[in-house]
């Protein structure tokens, strides 16, 4: 059996499909309960109960909503560009899924443990804007179009600072492999020595996932619902799923870059008994809670304020921090690869 | 076998999408085919073992450049029939560029030397013990650092040029000045009035119409306005 699975083409194919399912099925369940959790947390913050009717404690609320959504009619506006209109939600959903191929859930456990893992994640997350932009354009509606344009400008702006934050981490680690980045945090999580970057990264992920307080692309008070205003039924559902999967993905990315991924907080006995995936999940859940907490607490930014924050505050700060990190590592001789190659 | 199959798949789709870019009727479709082309080029890089370049291609071209491209094309109402009229005129130039690129490719791939003293291309920099990314870094930042810096300067000049060309100061545009906002104190904008009970608005000096001046009531010093825009000025006159 092992011989077949690991040493034949068909076996490897089956194994890969099983690996993908092992990631994607829990992920979809996680989305269902993230929606439920969000409504519960928001309810608690606003002194309400949240969903409490469908199933015990309202646990089946999301499934009821999903069934309701699936039984609705798919409406395609008459002026819409049909092919692109249907392609956009599909693209958003696929992009939110394929990024998970490189996320390590334990030491070396990833569907694809590639050398350029960080770049792959960054590439996939920067593609997310296409789904929104295409949806906005193909809907042939001014509200959807405005939402799409806002989103494009916003995501491109915040990617710059995200990228620079990642570069400062890569300077310290000296590898683009996600597993190496986690292993480099054995002694101390990067969230501590790089606290300012952690804050910038977290806020940028809020903007990148179009979450409050940066949810301008779907600002319901001015754009009805933003780029997906014309969508209904399963097409809308795919956008919805994609958005929440992106939130989970960004939380996973933050926990890998700053909170030590699957590493326990301290490498001593009671903590090391808990398996790595559990730690990763706990960290992701914590970050998702932060997402929801921020949504319940802060009012929406105005658009020019959003742009100012991205370009005039985050970009200079992360750039300065990158130079600072490089100088510090150079001066102390801690730059990875410095000892072996004798740079300088 | 799989590698070859993947190569032919990527190459075919790349060429087809390239053809679609120039022949698509809808400019937005053209840009989307261009993006598909980028993806397939990234796939070819991956097959060639240049995974760093593949990812950078996707991040920079697909993730940033093409987004702005799509952004602009979607906003503009391009009349494509008008664009097509120039086909006859531009065809020779375009063809010449194509031929030049093809010739360069032939020279490079065929290892033909135009200048006898030229060094051969450092092919397979990543094939040794060092990783792909490291080999590329060493080439760019150590061996060819001056050329790289020069490229950076050219780009910087282009960037500053673009900013200078498009930056115009419109007096009607209202800009937010955070420093000014934070420097504001209540005394700048608020005025405490002693009100007589039962008096009419005009008797009180028309405090509801600040632009009319404060009339009969001893006019206090004019509240300092932080910014007067033209729209406000004609109201005050």
Q: What does the model show?
A:
The complex is a heterodimer of chains A (344) and B (237). Chain A is mostly helical and 344 residues long. In chain A, 68% of the residues lie in helices and 0% in strands. The N and C termini of chain A lie far apart (53 Å). The model of chain A has no long low-confidence stretch (mean pLDDT 85). Among the domains of chain B are: 1-78, NADH-ubiquinone/plastoquinone oxidoreductase chain 6, subunit NuoJ (Four Helix Bundle (Hemerythrin (Met), subunit A), Up-down Bundle), CATH 1.20.120; 133-167. Helices cover 62% and strands 0% of the residues of chain B. The radius of gyration of chain B is 32 Å and the shape is elongated.
* Shape, principal axes of CA atoms of chain A: globular
Can you give the helix content of chain A as a percent range? 55-70%
**Proportion of residues in extended strands of chain A:** under 5%
Which structural class do you get from the secondary structure elements of chain B?
Answer: mainly alpha
Which CATH architecture of the domain at 1-78 in chain B would you pick?
A: Up-down Bundle
Q: Based on DSSP secondary structure assignment, what is the total number of beta strands of chain A?
A: 0
CATH superfamily of the domain at 1-78 in chain B: NADH-ubiquinone/plastoquinone oxidoreductase chain 6, subunit NuoJ
- Main structural class of chain A: mainly alpha
Regarding CATH, which class of the domain at 1-78 in chain B?
Answer: Mainly Alpha
Which regions of chain A have little confidence, pLDDT < 50, spanning 5+ residues? none
What form of chain B results from the Cα inertia axes?
A: elongated
- Please give the count of helices of chain A: 14
Radius of gyration of chain B: 32 Å
Tally of alpha and pi helices of chain B: 10
């Amino acid at each position: 059996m092992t011989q077949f699975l690991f040493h034949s083409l068909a076996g490897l194919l089956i194994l890969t499909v099983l690996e993908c399912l092992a990631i994607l099925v829990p992920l979809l369940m996680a989305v269902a309960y993230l929606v439920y959790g969000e409504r519960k947390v928001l309810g608690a913050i606003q002194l309400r109960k949240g969903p409490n009717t469908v199933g015990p404690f309202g646990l089946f609320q999301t499934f009821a909503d999903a069934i309701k959504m699936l039984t609705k009619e798919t409406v395609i506006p008459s002026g819409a560009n049909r092919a692109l209109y249907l392609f956009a939600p599909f693209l958003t959903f696929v992009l939110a899924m394929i990024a998970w191929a490189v996320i390590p859930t334990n030491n070396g456990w990833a569907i694809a443990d590639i050398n350029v893992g960080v770049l792959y994640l960054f590439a996939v997350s920067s593609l997310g804007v296409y789904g929104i932009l295409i949806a906005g354009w193909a809907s042939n509606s001014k509200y959807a179009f405005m939402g799409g344009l806002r989103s494009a400008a916003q995501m491109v702006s915040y990617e710059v600072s995200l990228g620079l934050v990642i570069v400062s981490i890569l300077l310290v680690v000296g590898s683009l492999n996600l597993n190496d980045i986690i292993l480099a945090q054995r002694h101390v999580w990067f969230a501590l020595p790089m606290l300012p970057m952690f804050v910038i990264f977290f806020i940028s992920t809020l903007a990148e996932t179009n979450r409050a307080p940066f949810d301008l692309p779907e600002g319901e008070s001015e754009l009805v619902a933003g780029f997906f205003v014309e969508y209904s039924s399963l097409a809308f559902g795919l956008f919805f799923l994609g958005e929440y999967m992106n939130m989970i993905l960004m939380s996973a990315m933050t926990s890998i870059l700053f909170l030590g991924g699957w590493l326990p907080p301290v490498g001593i006995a009671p903590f090391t008994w808990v398996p790595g995936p559990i730690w990763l999940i706990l960290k992701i859940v914590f970050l998702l809670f932060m997402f929801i907490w921020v949504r319940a607490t802060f009012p929406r930014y105005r658009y020019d304020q959003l742009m100012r924050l991205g370009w005039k505050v985050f970009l200079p700060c992360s750039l300065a921090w990158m130079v600072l990190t490089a100088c510090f590592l150079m001066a102390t001789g801690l730059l990875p690869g410095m000892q072996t190659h004798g740079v300088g | 076998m799989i590698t070859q199959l993947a190569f032919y798949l990527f190459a075919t789709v790349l060429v087809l999408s390239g053809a679609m870019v120039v022949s698509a009727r809808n400019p937005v479709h053209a840009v989307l085919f261009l993006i598909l082309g980028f993806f397939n080029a990234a796939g070819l890089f991956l097959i060639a073992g240049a995974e760093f370049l593949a990812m950078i291609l996707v991040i920079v071209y697909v993730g940033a450049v093409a987004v702005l491209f799509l952004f602009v094309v979607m906003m503009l109402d391009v009349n494509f029939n008008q664009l097509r009229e120039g086909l006859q005129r531009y065809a020779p130039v375009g063809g010449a560029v194509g031929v030049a690129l093809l010739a360069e490719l032939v020279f490079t791939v065929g290892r033909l030397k135009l200048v006898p003293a030229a060094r051969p291309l450092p092919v397979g920099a990543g094939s040794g013990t060092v990783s792909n990314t490291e080999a590329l870094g060493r080439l760019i930042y150590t061996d060819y650092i001056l050329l790289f810096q020069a490229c950076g300067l050219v780009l910087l000049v282009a960037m500053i040029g673009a900013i200078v060309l498009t930056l115009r100061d419109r007096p009607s545009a209202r800009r937010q000045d955070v420093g000014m906002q934070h420097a504001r104190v209540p005394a700048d904008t608020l005025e405490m009035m002693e009100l007589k009970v039962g008096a009419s608005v005009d008797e009180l000096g028309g405090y509801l119409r600040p632009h009319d001046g404060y009339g009969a009531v001893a006019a206090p010093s004019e509240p300092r306005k932080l910014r007067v825009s033209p729209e406000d000025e004609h109201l005050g006159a």
